[in-house]
Amino acid sequence: MWLPVSEFVAFLRDTLTNKELLACSLSKLRSKETPYDKVSVRPLKLKGELVYQVTYHYGTKELHENLNPEQTEERIGHLMAQVFRQGHFFTPQADWQVLVSKKGAIKMLRHSPTRRVEDVDLVHNRTKKYILEEGTPYPFLVELGVMNPSGKVLAKRYHKFRQLNKYLEVVEDCIPHIHTQGRPLQIVDFGSGKAYLTFALYHYLVEQLKLDVRIIGLDLKEDVVEFCNRMATKLGFKNLTFYHQDIKDFQAQGQVDMVVSLHACDVATDYALAQAVQWGAQVILAVPCCQHEVFAQLEERNHPVLLGHGILKERVAALITDAARAKLLTMQGYAVTVMAFIDLEHTPKNLLIRAFHDGAPPRQEAKEDYTRFKEMWGIQPTLEVLFGQGRS
């Protein structure tokens, strides 16, 4: 049910007046011209007074401003009216998802609370707090050889420890976009490999957030799958199961809410993305690698300066592939962000495609943008065919 803007203004004012806003995240830009892609808000204390730190996220950079409650109300109101189409507001009583229509009407969806007052850090110059903390022995990290039994990260595995934390920070941002209406959250991880990230995901969601979660990992290496299942059993991760199966052949049971595809090679990423969309997954996380398909389709004579050198052509092909994937997902009604990710150990690719599906209809301009893009480069990626946009 769509509401007048006054309903949201009253909610925002009451929340700030009663000091109940634990955090806020604004997303889904109205215009591509806006320099920042997200704004977050958190309370903090300066000289004994409660203020709100508004953070503007510019890719890997951030800008901050500290505002009093009245200024915060005005700033959030402006951003929701002019810049963003969605906001998540976290209070002790509930999480609120606020959607803004093109005509300015408001829809407010209430969800179970995921933040607690005691978890809010009001310190201004706070030190970086990782989701997985060094000095705390996590059984899965000890078993996987990242930590010793006392919780010290092994020197040779510190890169992996940082990668796991970065990954979980990305997952943390995804949680408000997943709504299961009381049923277990189901996640499918395509190409799970040795499953460091899969085990970390299960630990974070189940052990730390106490969510009811089912995770399925798929991989083509039978010995790796057997190892991961033994490890899951040893750790007591009863709702984490691995299967020796191809992405193309897997049939899920029940609703799949989140799909992860990290370093699935070449068009395997496309099959994972297409399957995620077919399932109606609310969140998709993909780190592609080994993009060969578009490389073979690019004609050097059309762009001789850029494509005349193999290494440049390889990099251009990878960027074109991921740009096409992002736009094709947008055409399916997803809000897509391509962001930096810590390099995986066996591939230099460090782009993460993150997609949220919040019920927005596909936009015609996305299809027009994609058509011009593919014609310019003379390509037809597998994902386009899988979505039924191109020739079979």
Describe this structure in words.
It is a single chain. With 392 residues, the chain is an alpha/beta fold. It is built from twelve helices and 14 strands. A hairpin with a 5-residue loop joins strand 6 (95-100) and strand 7 (106-111). Helix 1 packs antiparallel against helix 2, helix 4 crosses helix 5 and helix 10 (310-331) runs antiparallel to helix 11 (364-377).
Give me a quick take on this structure.
The protein is α/β, with parallel strands linked by helices. It is 35% helix and 25% strand.
Give the helix/strand layout.
Layout: H1 5-17, E1 23-29, E2 38-46, E3 49-58, E4 61-67, H2 69-82, E5 84-90, E6 95-100, E7 106-111, H3 139-143, H4 158-174, E8 185-190, H5 196-208, E9 213-219, H6 222-235, E10 240-244, E11 258-265, H7 268-279, E12 283-289, H8 293-297, H9 304-307, H10 310-331, E13 335-340, E14 351-356, H11 364-377, H12 382-386
Parallel strand pairs: 8-9, 8-11, 9-10, 11-12
Antiparallel strand pairs: 1-2, 1-5, 2-3, 3-4, 5-6, 6-7, 12-14, 13-14
Helix pairs in contact: 1-2, 4-5, 10-11
